[in-house]
Specification:
By secondary structure, the chain is α/β, with parallel strands linked by helices. α12 (243-252) links the parallel β6 (232-235) and β7 (266-270). This is DNA 3'-5' helicase.
Length: 711
């Protein structure tokens, strides 16, 4: 466990379990190894039960890798690494909601994906009445224009769903629910009304968006001592946490008041210099906030770098020393090789792309095949910068791949098959039911869908009134409501809707048979799972829609593979009963295997999808130069890294260059720092200064302030 660790790493790993510790881990300093060894130390030497340790990671993949590596370390000890309460903040929080949601009236809620939450927000806007619109028209322009978009001028009353959602998400990231916001003196009346109605409709559909997972969990654990058995909390990538996640960490670690040395025991690992997710409300200031809350908090800095040359480390540090009030770091390279940093300034982005291509061809022509294409990456601040580089790569026959694009689960064909899996799994998934009626096309026009939805909403509203008056009355499902709606339609439409509902019922019968099997992993059960998936894919019309397109077909087969490989969480992995509590307080979750699979995907979507996908793509495509945004490259490394576009207005980006916007400039600086620290051996920087701007834009005329001293 301690073998191969340097002195500072050992000090961090073996710090007392009872205490507050910040491990400041710069790039390439062995952060992951230290975190895994720290958990192993708490289990083996401090004797803490795995069920009493919480570990939060940035992605699900990171959590799975940690469990695998810990299982190796713990082999033969009788300790099961899977007993840890481990995962992303969202997955841990949803697990707590599934167990104790009844305490805040959130029993049997599901996770809304982006399409669900966008659709519900659209419904809110579409249902604004004349009185609402009149009230909004009397508000100052500055209070409503920030939510408007010219592209939405002819629909949704000119309001932009993405802009509204971003503001709602920002409030939730700071732990502010709609009721609190409405009562604050400086609230925006428009946003307050939309936020309140959005929350109402989400509750009507028994849905939680990703931000709600954190808010609702905080509501439970701050009011009820359901985690008072926890003895230590570890948080990875602490620089990427926001305010509500910081508060969750405090609550996770609160412990039991009467058990000695079991309160507020926390280890965080991170690097404030790598905080580049401000647009997601992450805040580097959480390091200082934690020290302010825990006055006795200790700090251990890892300073030995095992990734980059001293030249790269010196440049990276000089970049960050431009930031005011920053603690100086002196990372020490453990690499013996020395290579100079290269910078070139060109007259246009086209010439810059030619220069990059020329350098790559030179590296590839070196004798003895020193480098391969996949040893090289080109990291840009914004995706639009890659177009001209891609053109030049194509001209020069340089193979490349772009780590970008839609996340796997957002692709049209994948989203479509998931909708069908969702309606088979649950008879109450209104959003998925409506989408499956629309796609693939079923002789139901836009007007017909509108009528069906209106009638469905009336039935749901009436049922909610009944539930309010008779709380114990049985609640009809969306499936049954749609049957009722179908009976009021024309005979032609009735036939289409009923045929669709009958198909779903038939698949659900197969699912019920599957759930009766005792072993989810035997060959016979796997065959039944595969048969169910194939039936849904073929009979839904999706095979006819996508089967002729190889890429789309392969994506759907990937969903099938993941469904076949999916292992539902075992009963042994349930949360421990809290001290003073009893088993009866927990919600009994007897979900079918398909519901559990969909739930796991929903939590997977809340990861930093770009980084997660990119890590997997970079591993699997061995013969291509990698093109990526800097954000997409976080956590990755290459022997050779190009960072183009080091010009004012590009890096730093133009939106961050306001005279009083120091926080934004600092985030841009950290972005550049992350880019340079991806390089192991060779770092090639480039900029361009042009005389005239193209397509009516201002010319890029200055080298970036970040490298002026260097140049």
């Amino acid at each position: 466990m301690l073998c191969g660790l340097n002195a500072q790493q050992k000090k961090a790993v073996t710090a007392p379990a009872s205490g507050r510790l910040q491990i400041i881990a710069g790039p390439g300093t062995g952060k992951t190894t230290v975190l895994i060894s720290r958990v192993a130390y708490l289990l083996l030497y401090e004797g803490i039960s795995a069920k009493k340790i919480v570990v939060t990671t940035f992605t699900k993949k990171a959590a799975n890798e940690m469990i695998e590596r810990l299982s190796e370390l713990l082999r033969g000890t009788g300790i099961n690494a899977s007993d840890l309460i481990i995962g992303t903040f969202h997955s841990i929080c949803f697990r707590i909601i599934k167990t104790y949601g009844l305490k805040i009236q959130k029993e049997d809620y599901s996770i809304a994906d982006e399409r669900d939450s966008n659709s519900i927000l659209l419904e809110v806007l579409q249902n604004l009445n004349s009185r609402d619109l009149e009230m909004f028209s009397r508000l100052p322009d500055k209070d409503v224009d920030i939510f408007k978009s010219s592209r939405e001028e002819k629909k949704h009353h000119g309001y932009d769903v993405k802009k509204i959602k971003k503001h709602i998400s920002k409030l939730k990231a700071h732990g502010i629910i709609s009721k609190s916001y409405s009562g604050s003196p400086d609230c925006n009346l428009f946003l307050s009304c939309i936020y309140t109605e959005y929350e109402v409709r989400m509750n009507q559909n028994r849905l939680l968006d990703f931000d709600d997972c954190l808010l609702c969990c905080h509501s439970i654990i701050s009011k009820f001592p359901v985690l008072n058995f926890v003895e230590h909390v570890l948080v990875d990538e602490f620089q990427d946490t926001n305010e509500i996640q910081l508060q969750l960490m405090y609550e996770f670690a609160r412990g039991h008041p009467t058990i000695k040395n079991c309160q507020n025991n926390v280890t965080i690992v991170g690097d404030p210099d790598q905080s580049i997710y401000g647009f997601r409300d992450a805040q580097a200031v959480n390091f200082e906030k934690m020290k302010s809350t825990y006055k006795d908090c200790k700090t251990i800095s890892l300073i030995e770098n095992y990734r980059s040359t001293s030249e790269i480390l010196n440049l990276s540090e000089s970049i960050m020393r431009q930031q005011n009030k920053r603690v100086v770091k002196n990372l020490q390279s453990q690499m013996k090789a020395h290579f100079p940093i290269i910078h070139s300034n060109m007259s246009s982005p086209e010439n810059q792309a030619k220069w990059i291509s020329c350098q790559i061809k030179y590296f590839m022509a070196l004798p003895n095949s020193i480098f391969k294409y996949n040893d090289i990456s080109v990291l840009v601040r914004a995706a639009y910068q890659t177009r001209v580089i891609e053109n030049e790569f194509v001209k020069n026959g340089i193979p490349y791949m772009m780590l970008k694009g839609k996340a796997f689960w957002e692709r049209k064909e994948v989203a479509a098959i998931l909708d069908y899996l969702r309606v088979v799994a649950s008879p109450n998934d209104r959003m998925a039911y409506l989408r499956t009626l629309v796609f693939p096309k079923k002789s139901l026009g836009e007007k017909s869908i509108e009528i069906i939805n209106e009638k469905l909403e009336k039935l749901i509203t009436n049922d909610l009134l009944t539930q309010h008056q008779l709380p114990n009355a049985p609640r009809p499902t969306i499936h049954l409501f749609l049957k009722t709606v179908a009976s009021t339609l024309s005979s032609k439409l009735q036939l289409v809707v009923n045929k669709h509902l009958d198909f779903i019922e038939n698949c659900r019968s197969m699912l019920e048979s599957l759930n009766k099997t005792s072993n989810n992993n035997d060959a016979a059960t796997k065959r039944l799972v595969g048969d169910l998936f194939d039936k849904i894919y073929e009979k839904s019309g999706l095979k006819a829609e996508f089967g002729m397109e190889e890429d789309r077909e392969l994506n759907i087969m990937e969903v099938k593979r993941q469904f076949l490989d999916f292992e539902p969480p075992s009963k042994e992995n349930e949360l421990s009963t809290y001290i003073g509590g009893n088993e009866e307080e927990k919600t009994k979750n007897d979900e079918n295997i398909l519901s559990q699979f969909i739930e796991a995907i929903g939590l997977f979507e809340s990861d930093n999808q770009t980084g997660l996908q990119n890590e997997e793509s970079a591993e699997t495509d061995k013969g291509k130069v990698i093109l990526s945004t800097i954000h997409g490259a976080k956590g990755l490394e290459w022997p050779i890294v190009f960072v183009p576009g080091l010009s004012e207005g590009i890096l730093p980006a133009s939106f961050a260059m306001g005279p009083e916007d120091e926080d934004s400039i600092n985030e841009e600086r950290r972005c550049f720092y992350v880019a340079t620290s991806r390089a192991k051996s060779l770092l090639l920087l480039s900029s361009y200064c042009e005389e005239f701007g193209k397509w009516g834009r201002k010319p890029v005329s200055e080298v970036s302030r970040f490298i002026k001293d260097f140049t």
